[in-house]
């Protein structure tokens, strides 16, 4: 069971591992991750609901000045719009985890279809869960979705398996983890656009056309949310770079260029500033 421990500093560590299964659907995607060594990243965000099942070793999650530890008996839930520290600790045979990412559209549609059930579940707890115990039903739903992704099942079957897992998570007490994030809808929309193509040569005028509002209005709305276009763009680029470093064998220079950085050295500086580890140090631990 993932259990709360003592409060930790404001900038906790996190870790990433190698990505061995490619995304194959916009609504549901899966990853198999491995690491040889313990290593840490901080300030990690996820663009979509991410569900993690650790199979070897254990994971520590740092969130809101609290530390949580999870292992094989848990499913760990990371929500978009939050920043986490995730410290992955290998066991005797390294660190291994399965990750499933569910799109905001799928989760929102599930909430619409099961609003009554979710509302009832919300009455039982005020806390947003970081993890859910893998009881028999949740464990079966998790394994079924993993198998469907591995076998290349058609999108409608992946969708159905994902909804079954969401239903099990709701019944297991994780309803609050499925609620929309704290960010305003406009910020979420901007993040989605930039996350879809982080290497693009974005400018505020192009983004304003896609959001259907004037550039000055867009800037004003972003500023009202204590956000800026350049800040959100860099967040999208560094998050995409983190994923590529974990999931591919592409060179660091290639990844830097692919996410929009002309200078690999400048990219490395920005990456370390954000995550607390350099790209080369991260690669050495995978």
Automatic annotation (TrEMBL):
It comes from the Bacteria. Residues 188-285 form the HTH araC/xylS-type domain. Residues 1-25 are annotated as: Disordered. One of its GO terms (molecular function) is DNA-binding transcription factor activity. GO terms for cellular component: cytosol. PROSITE patterns: HTH_ARAC_FAMILY_2. It holds the Pfam family HTH_18. Signal peptide: none annotated. Keywords: Activator, DNA-binding, Transcription, Transcription regulation. This is AraC family transcription regulator protein. It comes from Marilutibacter maris. The lineage of its organism: Bacteria, Pseudomonadati, Pseudomonadota, Gammaproteobacteria, Lysobacterales.
